[in-house]
Amino acid sequence: MPSLVLLALVGLAAQLVDGALGMAYGVTSTTLLLAIGTNPAAASATVHLAEIGTTLASGVSHWRFGNVDWKVVLRVGVPGAIGAFAGATFLSNLSTESAGPIMSFLLLALGIYLLVRFTFAGLRTDRQGLPLRKRFLTPLGLVAGFVDATGGGGWGPVGTPALLASGRLEPRKVVGSIDTSEFLVALAASLGFLFALGSQDIDVTWVLALLIGGVIAAPAAAWLVRRVPGRVLGSAVGGVIVLTNTRTIIRSDWVGWKGTPQEGLTLAVLALVWVAAVVWSVRAYRADLAAGRADVAGHGPADEAPADRTPVAGPTA
């Protein structure tokens, strides 16, 4: 019973972060399952089965709060489902540990870009409202879906920063659309795992525990993303990506710092940098708000900064 309560709390916390930042549910939950000895395929299958319910609840919540662009959901979600099914089948038959650090380097570079971009330059508004094309969304969905299924998480870390970096969609709608489209990805990945593995390695009670925690947190997360300024949200997302993927890299065989003082020191320094970046973004947002240039909670065209106004680079003295 204590382990099930812990899983439910992990599901709640993971969904709260995922619903607010557009990522981290799969990574957080899968990490716990691997830590207690679950094999990678079964861990990913368990998480994706739980995500069928949590992403449905999250999608409904984001829809009710007006955080969803349905065109984006379909254009990225359908290819994402295809990629997820392929990734689940692949993982069930082959280990992908060697590919982890490579993908982490790519995500780390994108995370650094987002962290620097949103911290020092603010939210780009000159391209908001422009359409996101299929030639961008289709390959993004395929790659993100495949990574999500093989890594036990990755739909958000790949999809959210890519859409944020495009500058064409409000941050709240990036998060809401990615979370909503993840329902298709979770469903396809689960089917792939069930076809390849069967259900013998999946603990249904674990699935239910993660599901219950995630469903409870979904409405609160959808509300939270409406209250977080777009500039601050971008810095927060960038920091999550940098920390998560740096940890993966330094624990890989390429670096071999797992459990060493170097690992703790590196992550501690990055955490301090992340906190400082978020504080800087909050102060800069308040300065913009006082000057009438800030995006009010980063939501809605009427609330966005005018495209011909240059955002404040940093907090005023």
UniProtKB/TrEMBL annotation:
Record Pfam families: TauE
Transmembrane segments: 72-92, 98-116, 136-155, 204-225, 264-285
Annotated protein name in UniProt: Probable membrane transporter protein
Keywords, in A-Z order: Cell membrane, Membrane, Transmembrane, Transmembrane helix
PANTHER family: MEMBRANE TRANSPORTER PROTEIN MJ0441-RELATED (PTHR43701), MEMBRANE TRANSPORTER PROTEIN YTNM-RELATED (PTHR43701:SF12)
Signal peptide extent: none
Family annotation (InterPro entries): TM_pro_TauE-like, TSUP/Inactive_protease-like
Topology of the protein relative to the lipid bilayer: Multi-pass membrane protein
Lineage: Bacteria, Bacillati, Actinomycetota, Actinomycetes, Micrococcales
Subcellular localization(s) per the UniProt record: Cell membrane; Membrane
